[in-house]
Structure formats: C-alpha cells, structure tokens
Amino acid sequence: MLGLDSCPAERGEAEHESTDFLEPTIETTAPDLWLTHDGVGLGPLRVDLAETYWRWENSLPVMAGYARQTPESLTERTAGLEAQLEGSADQTRFTIYRHHDDTWAPVGMTSLLTDDRYRTGEFFIYIGEPDHRGHGTGTIATTMILDWAFHVTALRCVYLEVLANNTAAIRAYEKAGFGTVGTRRRTGSWFGQPADEVIMDAIPEEYTGPRLVEAAVLGNRQSRR
Ligand SMILES: CC(C)(COP(=O)(O)OP(=O)(O)OC[C@H]1O[C@@H](n2cnc3c(N)ncnc32)[C@H](O)[C@@H]1OP(=O)(O)O)[C@@H](O)C(=O)NCCC(=O)NCCS
Question: Does the keyword Acyltransferase apply (predicted)?
Fold first, then answer.
C-alpha cells in the first residue's frame, strides 16, 4: 500500500519552541480555489500549510486509514512537500477546503498520481480536521476529483486501494462513483492485525456526477457535448 509519504508539504525552517503549530489553521485571506461544489473547494498545495499537512497526516485516524506504522518528522514532511510542489507532471494534488462561517477552511488533502503510459491515476484522500469528518466532505471531494480526472487530466481509469475495515472511506468512495473490482488478502494492517485491501476504480464512461469542470469553463454558455 502506498502510504502518506505520497501526500506531504513545505516550510522555510524547522525549529519549534512553541506548540502553536498544533492549532487548527485560521485563514486570514481568501484562498485560491480551482473548483468549488456544495460547500467544498479544491485549491493548490500551499507552502504555508506544511505544518498543518504534517499535523493532519500524523494524527492517528489518518495514520490508521493508510496503515502507516511510523510517524513522520516535520523535517521529512517539509522535504516531501518540496518534492510534491515540483512534481506536477505526474501528480495532481489539492488542498481540500470546507466553507463555513463565511470562510473557506483547509480541512484535508487529496491526490491523483498519474501514469502517463496508460492514462491511469491512483487516488488518495484524507480529511485531516476531525470535526469535518463524517459530514459529506470526503464524498464531495472525491466526486470533484473524478470530474477533474476525467475532464482535465483526461484519465481513462482512476483507482484506489482501501483497507476493507475502513467502512467510512469505502462508503464515501461508492457514493462518489467508485466501484469495487476486487480484494487483496492480508496485504494491509488494521490495529496491528492483518487486513484485506479493497481495490476500487472509476472510468469516465460510467461517470454520472456533476460536470463542474465543464461549467467552470463554459459558464452559462451551451455545452458543446
Ligand atoms: C475516509 C474519509 C476521507 C471520508 O471522508 P468523510 O468526509 O469523513 O466522509 P463522508 O462524510 O463524505 O462519508 C462517510 C460515509 O461513511 C459512513 N460511515 C461513517 N462511519 C462509518 C462506519 N463505521 N461504518 C459504515 N459507514 C460509516 C457515513 O455515514 C457516510 O455515509 P452516509 O453519508 O451514507 O451516511 C475521512 O473519513 C478520512 O479522512 N478518514 C481518515 C483517513 C482515511 O481513512 N483516508 C482514506 C484512506 S484509503
């Protein structure tokens, strides 16, 4: 299973005398958003969120969801973010935002790692802010990623692996349009025990979600489809 080392962030220096970085990120200016739908926004990865990504990815619910066994240092995460910010040719990564109290708050991250030879992409997601899990954000963001994958990145198939025990994730993926194609046995770990992994995929011919990309490009003009 590909872990969260594929999902990291950046920052200028690494010293930390205070614990201010453990606080949720408060936005003071409106973030750049590429796509919005139903109170969920997708925007670019941000250097200034390096510590936030690190905090999210090293929280136990996210570590458990990715069967990650060792926490990552902020130094490693910072280096990882630098690589991610320079690897846009085969990586599409978004900060996920949720709109509430008249602001867009960063709440998680989602990624598509593409294989140009076959026009496929592996999908990853987490909602890092605990209060924002279980309120539909993951489902909406997953739908938005599929729209982007098929109508911007021109992928022929998007796939993922998820621990069979991760019922909330599987439910969110199903609602967003992924279908199960198989199970790999005992290739994962759940609370230290061997766990199966479910393989899911989605193809553009079966996509029935909202055409957000098309609407963003064409606006009120008639679609040419
Ligand atoms: C998986 C994750 C991205 C889903 O995002 P989310 O915003 O919490 O999910 P949603 O609220 O959109 O949907 C969750 C669905 O699972 C359901 N659900 C939640 N807990 C469940 C459980 N224990 N059993 C069954 N269904 C469950 C919810 O009821 C909801 O379905 P519903 O809308 O039909 O009621 C998020 O929970 C997360 O980041 N988890 C930690 C990291 C992780 O596991 N990432 C995925 C690794 S593959």
Answer: yes
What separation in angstroms does the CA of 169 have from each of 28, 176, 195, 221? 31, 11, 15, 36
Q: How far is the CA of 138 from the centre of ligand 1 (A)?
A: 7
Angle (CA) 107-110-116 rounded to 5° is 165
**Structural domains for the chain:** 32-218 (3.40.630.30)
Atom index in ligand 1 nearest the CA of residue 132 equals 7
> Could you tell me if the CB of 139 is within 6 A of ligand 1?
yes
Quick: pLDDT tens for 97-146.
Answer: 999 999 999 999 999 999 999 999 999 999 999 999 999 999 999 999 99
| Ligand 1 close to Cβ of residue 166 (< 6 A) | yes
Token representation of residue 48: 């200034």
Helix axes 50-57, 74-85, angle to 10 degrees: 120
